[in-house]
């Protein structure tokens, strides 16, 4: 995540590099990061982030990652991930369809609606994400 003042937070798969990156903002957040990341993925993001971290740049970065992971997990669990990724149109029913074809067509038509509903439900922490981004802007003289 890039900040307006030119600073940035770059996280990846290497524990030591992540610690160094987070330490640029707040050492206690860097020390808490590896311990609390799994809690972040398994619990409401705003609760875990507010309890364990202080810097808004880290909270915004981790909340964004959590929303993406949760969204994809929900969609995969309900066999809807391909609907989002491929975004293909539903083929029309053939002439004189069978009941099985009608049922399959109906299920296929509702998949996008189901995916949208799951996406909306999975990003319940988005308001916290927006407030952390707003604080970042305000703290850097924009807003």
UniProtKB/TrEMBL annotation:
The name this protein goes by in its record: Uncharacterized protein
Entry's family note: Belongs to the carotenoid/retinoid oxidoreductase family.
Higher taxonomy: Eukaryota, Viridiplantae, Streptophyta, Embryophyta, Tracheophyta
